[in-house]
Here is the input.
Amino acid sequence: MTPRQDAIAALERIAYILERELEPTYRVRAFRNAAAVVRTLSDAELELRCRRRTLQSLAGIGPSTAQVIEEALTGATPAYLQRLETETPPIADDALALRQALRGDCHVHSDWSDGGSPIEEMAMAALSLGHEYIVLTDHSPRLTVARGLSVERLREQLDVVRGINERIAPFRILTGIEVDILEDGALDQRDDLLDRLDMVVASVHSKLRMPAAPMTERMVTAVSNPHVDVLGHCTGRLLSGRGGRGRPESEFDPAAVFGACLEHGVAVEINCRPERRDPPGRLLRLAAGMGCLFSIDTDAHAPGQLDWLENGCERAERHGIPPDRVINTRTADEVAARACGGQ
Here is the structure.
């Protein structure tokens, strides 16, 4: 690579790691914007500005990003990037084996709903991590705060995904949705559209404090629906949230819900988001002991978050869940064929 390309790569890698670590969006954007500015410059102009120390006169480049660029142009790894890379703890060997067995990620969002990046950008980030596929699971219409997809927008997205897949093959974007489980257990999207999708993740996003009995019935009804492949973040808990406030677990009969998942071949999601880590350990042990299938998913809303699969792999390994019980160790064709519907 040229020194200019080294600078771009360093800025983008920093943005990626900051995103993975859930740093504020403005910090991520600062490094991505700087990379975009550097792309507009020729090698000669970039080197001249570095010599004259005029990088910061360009809109989108500040002191920190200028220092990264200048250090990268010398052929060295920028100190900022070195620090971020060394702060990442290594994954344990047993969990690493499971991580290497994963072929894809079955719960990914884009800027079509509440994600921050375009579909193709999410796909290319996943490809760089060694994935063979992602399942695009933007929200369903009832979740208006997350710009859930109407019937018309979901149809349009299917056409868009088809076009992207033609460009980026053999990597594959599988079509999907994170569909809301409504209060009566119905799914928040039309059956004919759900039938066209490769995968359906069903999650509770509203009325999370329902009494245990109706919440159990609600969830059992949902996972008994033949369209559902994965039960998403089953307790709805947040270990931390806005302003540092978390959210308690929803109350339900886990044996009944996981029993319905087992009966209908629905995978229980091991949600990798650091603020979720759902299900909690005691429920993960229960589901594992009952023989459930699992899906280790990042629930990523930005490219850097696709790297969170390790979180779920460590939890799965800790509770003795083998690779053959994890549906995203399967090929894209097997997942699209709803291979998770059988043991």
Summary: The two ends are 47 Å apart (CA to CA). The longest strand covers residues 172-180. Strands lie at 104-108, 133-136, 172-180, 199-203, 230-231, 267-271, 294-297. The chain has 14 helices and seven strands.
